[in-house]
Amino acid sequence: MFMFCGDSHSRIFQIDTWGKFSFTSFSGATIAGLPSPRSHTQHGAIIRHLARAPETKTLVLMFGNVDIDFTFYRSSALDPDVTLERFIADRVRNYISFLTLLCDDDFPDSVIEDICVLGAHPTPVLDENFIDVTGPQTKLERSAFEELGKRMDLSQVARTKRGLALNDALEQELPRFDNRISFHRIDKAMLAETGVIDNKYAGQFRLDHHPNRNLSRQLWYKALADKIPAFKERARS
Q1: Which domain of life does the protein's organism represent (predicted)?
Q2: Contact yes or no for 96/102 (Cβ under 8 A)
Q3: DSSP 8-state class, residue 70
């Protein structure tokens, strides 16, 4: 069985696929909320409950875009002392805390055969749309981002680099925790020479903070082909 759980970016996988697949998405869910009992979505607790299903499974987790695309900028606007390094280190600890809870739960190790952690997508939000997209998601006024822009580079190039840095840290640290954990990413394959997401992978609408589903999904098929047989077939087509 293949069990996909993630934020709204994980909906990219919700298509007809032959075999035993389950898909659960949590809008607005963060890495920070995974181990937290105070999470408003309770996604960590729900995933741990789903993982108990008496079926050998590969668990696919996709979180991080909400953290690096929205939470980081809200936190930075409200607290000038926030640094990217500390923010990312916190997210790594949050993920490891959740994986610790998951792996320590009282069910046989054989129930979870593999845990595939997927990296965040590069942001498709253009510079001129940044405040219009990020403001409603963070519940901050335009003036807060105008002030933030005076002390932080908010360009798409800089925002993309922050997403890459998050993925780099997760890729380095998470697989060390348990030999069932692997990290997968397509962010670098989505970038143009300009250092931002290639236009062909950008979302359909001006204010869409998700990438193009169809083209991005093809990259995920290739990235996960060794873990999910059905994806290997689709990657060839």
Answers
A1: Bacteria
A2: no
A3: I
